[in-house]
Please model this.
Amino acid sequence: QIFRFKEMLASVLSRSPSNSASKGSVHRSSSVAARSSAGQRRFASAEAEAKLRAKQELVAGKSDEEVVQMLQNAKLSAWDLEQTLQDPLRAVHIRRTFVSNLDARVAEGLKTLPVDNFDYKPVLGACCENVVGYIQIPVGVAGPLLLDGVEYQVPMATTEGALVASTSRGCKAISLSGGASAVVINNGMTRAPVVRFPSVKRAFEMKEWLEKMENFYQVAAAFNSTSRFARLSTIKTMVAGRNVHMRFKAKTGDAMGMNMISKGVEKALSVLQDYFPDMEPLSLSGNTCTDKKPSAINWIEGRGKSVIVEVVIPGEIINNVLKTDLNKMVDLNINKNLIGSAMAGSIGGFNAHASNIVTAIYLACGQDPAQNVESSNCMTLMETVNEGKDLHVSVTMPSIEVGTIGGGTHLPSQSSCLTMLGVKGTSATVPGANAEQLAKIVASTVLAGELSLMAALAAGHLVRSHIQHNRKKSENQGDMGHSLAALDK
Model:
């Protein structure tokens, strides 16, 4: 209801005279520009279709060898073979032959890179280009993980030996303790364009303009008009010289939301351009978003889903399942995860190995693996409770970036893993509920991983376990802490 009132208010305000420019003339010029842009897009689309038809006529009835020869003679492009041939698997095979002819090392490598028994159609235009095959990553399950009264078997794709076993041990400790509980304390994907003005004064005038609620509502109405799910919540404005960085933050339903919010930002910038015609957009992303890079702003302000998970582990479970002492774990957590990370100047790295779990789940569930950079921001806290008999453990993760639609979530294998967790696709009841639940599962599995590895480190048996569980297989396989966890299983 509040949001509908805001949209109605924005609609009224959009009809009000502007102090910055004549709205009538601005709207007329915007309408002309929009029609011109639409015409240009239609022309470009017709031209592209004509080129595609010409390529398809060129390859009609040709053998694979003849198509390879056309590629070598630059009569065709390798990157759009799927569209040209209308047969994704054939296109991949022909591309493999073409690139193999270019480099003997590639030819040798492609002999063992799998290519068949894979559906390439969902990949096209969504996940990868110039496809020559696929890689195989084992998927294990960690669990059962008891979270808010529901048990989960968590899929993890990894090549790190003993990681799944270690995380499962943590899940066991959590489940035997009555389960973990999780809350999402903030939700909003961000995109931060940067624009430039002729002077610092003009840059500051925009900042002041955006800080007035009636102006924000007008920009929000434009932003929200681009999607059924995108809902702008804030714009954080930062001025550096004559540049303005605007950090748009919005809910994006069950999508991770980068494409959705980028579309909304483009629409919002067009509105701002009407009021500030001397504004020069420099980039849709000015790096204060911040995407796939370490940053204090994500750690402090949050990005995606901000999640906190907690559990109380009884002392006997610390002794019998985790094979250590709770006081040792508290002491180690202070000296390693808090003091050690502070001495390293870490941003968001106040944990033992959150990124291990985040990356493994992301790979299994079709998330963007590069976003483990900010999604792995985590502070692990441990303290004794109940007169020192039990251990309270929590993980605070302010920037988990996940979605249950879009990206790689539609690929068959990754979709299967989301189905295992009961969060595939769009929530049928509350928009965004599936993505929030996935974020909770990620954070809770991180909690399990933290418990197990910290227990292994506190136990002090690492060298023995490493020798027994890893070194006789490979000098570099697995983590010593995980090895102990697997050994104890």
Remarks:
- The longest strand covers residues 181-191.
- The mean pLDDT is 90.
- Residues 23-59 form the longest helix (37 residues).
